[in-house]
Amino acid sequence: MTSPSLLYSDVEDDLRSTVRDLLRDRLDPAAQLRALDSDAPHDRALWSALAARVGLAGLLVPEELGGADASAREAAVVLEELGRAVAAVPFLSSAVVATSALLEIRRRGPVPGQVDDALHRLAAGDAVGILAVPLTAAPGDAWPTSVTMDGSALRGAVTSVADGELADVVVVPAVRSGSPVLALAEFGVPARPRVSLDQSRRLSDLSFDGPGTVLAEGDAAVAALEAAVLAGAGLLASEQLGVAEWCLAETVAYLKVRRQFGRPLGSFQALKHRLADVWLEVTSLRAVARYAADRLAGAAARTADGGETAVAVSVAQAYAATTAVHAAEEALQLHGGIGMTWEHPVHLRLKRAKADQLALGTPGRHRARLSELVDLPPPLVTPYAPTP
């Protein structure tokens, strides 16, 4: 196996600049805060601009279907910037997770025509796709059984689906005659919003009671679902990196100008040490997130690689969630009184970091999965016995 490059390429740097400039032009922080109190927190105008001007909706889609045929490394750079901005757009759920499921079905073949049609719509930005699994779904989970398929009819419900309200293309894991299938819901799927900690990535409960078209079944369906969730978990670490980087940069800038006792707050040794700890954690997070993205992007990720990609993803997620939360908590505390107000955007990063801590597998679940992947037995726990 060749050594991965964790450095950003010129193409990735250019993509970052393009996305950051567009977010700076289109994303007004005050309007972003006001939208969270509304019934429609999703920024559809921003998503249209990102999909149409930059082509982010089809970043992973092959060129023959209208996409950019990019890799997970480029998608990771985009997620870093979207994480920094806490942009309320469905890039992770549509352009990464749902698209990865469809691409894995396409890779394994034979390919139903609906797969290419769906990928073409997603790449053009004409539709938003979701994989109908809870946000908490993790790599290695058992096949979901809450939706059944009888003939061509889908029936059941899935709770806590990210961006479910926006979905036009819904890929549904279901059970038909005891066998796993991935189906495409043919008509609009009712979505009931749930109360979400992170209002910029709202959750919904989806109800199914209508026709669907089977896209894959058996082992092919299981492999497609696993590939989608694995890609989502691995690239989520890059979003968490973006959140943590924003928190660190904004806090450093604030402590340079905020004065107390006649001195900048940043001159106090105790605060320097706290920020130094965050900097070390963010630097380590960048390494594991980049490695996970590189593994997902490599040819080995699309063939048997001995579980190296799964190991990289679990390492990244076991570390990323805790680091992002710690960076956001430190940012809020070190901003003092202004950091506790609704008007300051630091609370958006804390909510995103806390929500991402549960998304696509908690750190504890990824550590447990990592112990299985590397054949490391769990620690022995001696039962507590009270002293007589």
3D architecture notes:
With 388 residues, this protein is α+β, with helices and mostly antiparallel strands. It has a domain at 222-373: Butyryl-CoA Dehydrogenase, subunit A, domain 3, CATH 1.20.140. The chain is 52% helix and 14% strand. Strands 1, 2, 3, 4, 5, 6 and 7 form a 7-stranded mixed sheet that branches. The longest helix is centred in the middle third of the chain and has 39 residues, at 219-257. The model has no long low-confidence stretch (mean pLDDT 85).
> Would you state the CATH class of the domain at 222-373?
Mainly Alpha
- CATH superfamily of the domain at 222-373, by name, is Butyryl-CoA Dehydrogenase, subunit A, domain 3
How much is the radius of gyration in Å?
21 Å
Q: Tell me, briefly, the overall form.
A: globular
Largest sheet: 7 strands, mixed
